[in-house]
Amino acid sequence: MSRYGMVIDTRKCVGCQDCVIACKTENNVPIGYNRDWIVTETHGKFPDIQLEIRTERCNHCSETPCVSCCPTGASHIHDVGGIVLITHEKCIGCKACVEACPYDARYIHPDGYADKCTFCIHRVEKGQKPACVEVCPTYCMHFGDLDDPNSEVSKLLQSRKWHVNLPDAGTQPNIFYLV
Amino acid sequence: MITELVELSTTRNNPHIDPSMAMWEWQIPVYLFLGGMVAGMMIISGYFLFSGRHKESNCACFSIPTISIVLLSLGMFALFLDLAHKFYVWRLYTTFQFKSPMSWGAWILILVYPALIANILIRPAAWMLKIYPKLSEWAGKINQHPFLIKNIGILNMILGLMLGAYTGVLLSSMGSRPLWNTSLLWVLFLVSGLSAAAAFVHLFAKNKTESELLAKADNGFLIVELFIFVMMFLGFLSSPKPHMEAAKLLLSGAYAPVFWVFVIGLGIVIPLIIQLLAVNHKIRHTAIAPIMVIVGGLILRFVIVSAGQYSHWFNAHFH
Amino acid sequence: MNSLSRRKFLKISGATVITAAALAGSAKTFVNAAESYSKPKGLQVIPSYCDLCFWKCGLLAYVKDGELWKLEGNPKDPLSNGRLCPRGTGGIGAYFDKERLKSPLIRKSERGEEKWVEVTWNEAFDYIADKMKKMKVTYGPEAMALFSHGIGGSFIKHLLRAYGSPNETAPSFAQCRGPREVGFELTFGDIIGSPERTDIENAKCIVLIGSHLGENMHNTQVQEFSRAVEKHASIIVVDPRFSVAASKAKYYLPIKPGTDLALLLAWMSVIVNEKLYDTDYISKYGIGFEQFAAEVSQYTPEWAYIETGIDPDVIRETAREMSRYKPATLIHPGRHATWYGDDTQRSRAIALLNALMGSWGRKGGLYVPYSYSIPKYPYPPYPELQKEPLDNPNKKYPFATGEQISTGIREATITGQPYPIKGWFIYGTNLMQALPNRDETIKAIQNLDLMVVVDVIPSEIAGWADVVLPESVYLERYDDLNASPFREGFVGIRQPVIDEPNDQKPNWWMAKKLGEKLGLGAYFPWKDIEEYLDTRLKLAGHSLEELKREGIIKGPKKPIYFEDGVEPEFATPSGKIEFYSSQLAQAGFDPVPRYTKHPEPPAGFFRLLYGRAPVHTFSKTQSNPILADMMSENELWVNADLAERYGLKSGDRIKLKNQDGVVSDPIKVKATERIRQDCVFMVHGFGQKSRQLHSTYKKGASDAELVTKYNTDPLMGGTAMNVNFVSFELEV
Description:
A: alpha+beta, four-stranded mixed β-sheet, two-stranded antiparallel ribbon, C: 24 helices
């Protein structure tokens, strides 16, 4: 089994939103909607300040409240890499999955269905990286199989300190932030 | 990080999600309220059938199922209005998703309608007979079997219980929203549904005995509801920070005024006092207390849905 | 929700909008299906280079079934390394922008009222040619001046040179990097140039003074900066604002604005006194070191503390830190350097600090770039100039070398001295935001007989024009070849990847057609630009066909460091690195930089600072729907404690009033710990006032509007703009 995930180096990220724009053009994300976004945390008091800048998106969690709550099976786990996808033609637009995601990673597309990051599965299945990873001018994003101990992402997690977002929410996210 | 988080900014700006979740608007609380009240009405009318009150000629129980169907359909229409991908609504009934409360709900609703219809058939209203005279034949047949009526009562009670509980479980299954994430929520919604139902039936009770009975029952439900609130908040306040913050939204935060005034004060405590006085014959039974209870129940759904969406794991770390 | 977000914006080409509007919404699918029959099927990938800023990164345009889909970096391109910056990635928005100029316009009422008559290209050219011919007779060809920014202006430049005008400028000199180039040229005999010759990737210690890489998205620099961070380079950031770069730094020095030169002098004094400099390098290549050393040693860290607010121990520690990694210590020269009026001297101090580290010409410092030399097109010689350029009469600013002073031309347009300027041709630069003191710009414009603006959008400056010529966006046109000096020599092509949606035309076509109307056809001997490009490329042993296919062709490799065999050459009068500058002394300036105190904001006022955001360039990208989606207005950074004192919270809107009483448009407050209390900051380019460009109209506030005061650099005429103070107007 493979488990796709991302390892993002917050030390390198400058929060430029290139990932956001690349996602937008690659996936036709409508103006006014975000599949990915930048979060900036400021800690401390001037001038002793620390920032953490993160690019965020669906965490493609291992525990998926968004899939469990879906009444039609539109929200599902893909055969490859354990990633979370939505079948638009099955979605009734009930918004339960939008509510169920502690990361607020989903939104309702203007066409009515729930939508979110797909890890660019259409690219990944062709051997490419997700558009956001491929575009990043700081090379802060890494994508790969977390179940493969020899993958770049696994090695980064072994060698560096990291955290995930909202570990207490119990979703076991598959996006890791190097600090 | 060691130092205190002082600022948090995001570039995300999704409609109805940022700056705080407001995906579910008026439709869902209306649906949850009507669903909960119908659930209560099913339990009450089911109990009337089960306990043989239907043998009395002027029992309110005869009009309950008809009104229930109307109210439930209104609620479901509200739910339908909320769907963003309406043409795909049939997808609900091509599958059963065991883990999805909404899927359960969809199928429970499918079962609720026949149960209500069976209930109606025990004594169809005059206007129904006018439209379809054959109904009296069916009603006659059903009434030949008291056992069947008892079972229809049980069925209504069970499905009412499921429906009422479902309205709470729909929300409480969402670990993402700390305020909803309590196992007491379904009990709260069930009891609140029962109290609203008792109040609603009270409004068209056919005789004084019924009024007394419903007012007494309602008082019981209201007291239990208060008790559940206490339990729920005790639970939240001894939980991790996100849940604590969620409880504070109602207790002292942005939602506190509406919660204390409309939900607790005007929705529970005052009508409870009025009805306690009424059942002790200090004052007459009027429509005031039941209406307050019903409106309070509706506002409760609005408050819980809205504040629940606002409550958040992430915001909890930062104000 | 705006109408655009209601549909997939990529579906909106001009044609789709018109047809879809004509038919009912339900027929949308049908329309798209019908449309796709007439367009080429399948995926085309076409190389070109970007125009979202001046970096000119190589790109690959993806066109799916005849519709523009997305842009990616060209992996062969040494500038982008296959990764565009956010603006470049969002470049398709320039094509989809609904408010683009669609046809030539001639003014029909007062200048600046933005009332137009749509005309044909022929009518527009006749109008311009007629005025230009008359002007030539009455005033001479030098009465026509060109303001042009970016490579797209090269054919217009050619046109005006052929016409006989010597007056050609861009705000990129006197309003931007001019002081830096002059400061470095005075020291090393060469400029920094663009793209900057900074070897960030190999630097072991990087000092950023006000430069906010990461927010300032100069692609290669940001990529290299990130690699330096990864390699744990020691980063020192000097900035009144805690920039993104500061968050990556080992040392953050929250300097008082206007005192950078004090810090630089104190650093140099520590380095000189503790003999932390590169002795060999200085003795080999330097001149006047003793005089320099004697001069700077007076500036102790304790003295600098009073000026800058930086702890003397930190000044010493950071000086030693720089020295520890020399010569791979890069004191970044910055780019937009027009701050306080002594900017050339500050830049020279930065140059001198680099010289002390021995980093000029060395790995990890400032490398020696080279370009792939592509021969020029064999044009006939330009007509002999009748008059000298008038931007800098009597060499008032003796070191304004290389480029002309835009504000000097503006001044001459107002005064008519030393000779009248009666026509402005403006290409690719919004002077309303670029030049300081808007009133002076408007005053100059009112003196003109002809003002022509070539632009892709109805920009603010276009609103003041007599004739507006709508240009094709970069994805629809050819431009001249790009062979920027860099780490390696290369030539890149800009070529059309999609058709213009309306009657927009490329600049080369405008120049040729207008040239023919002016009787200058001999200067445009080529049939079209393809012939022009092919001729140039053939002279270099390539062909247009080859470059169209490859997008980038690399030249022969050369070394870029002294240690790899580059011959150290310094084109200064002495042929050495001038620690003491005799030419400055002779001209009556400080031969070694000296500190001058700048006025501080009075009580209730704050110094207005401005800078960049990663998703916008100048004031030219704000209407791009994708980039506007990322950032549609700017915010005013206010220190959190200061904000609290004024009762301001993040998200509140206030106006700013400057020392001259100019009041800004409302701007959102960002109350933050990330800035000092004596200054406020906003991103440049917002608060635009073009009534035809609704998507930008009064979105946020304009720093440029508040820059009514400017100090002129006596060495080179740069206009320093960080000298304006603002107060808060809480009632909006």
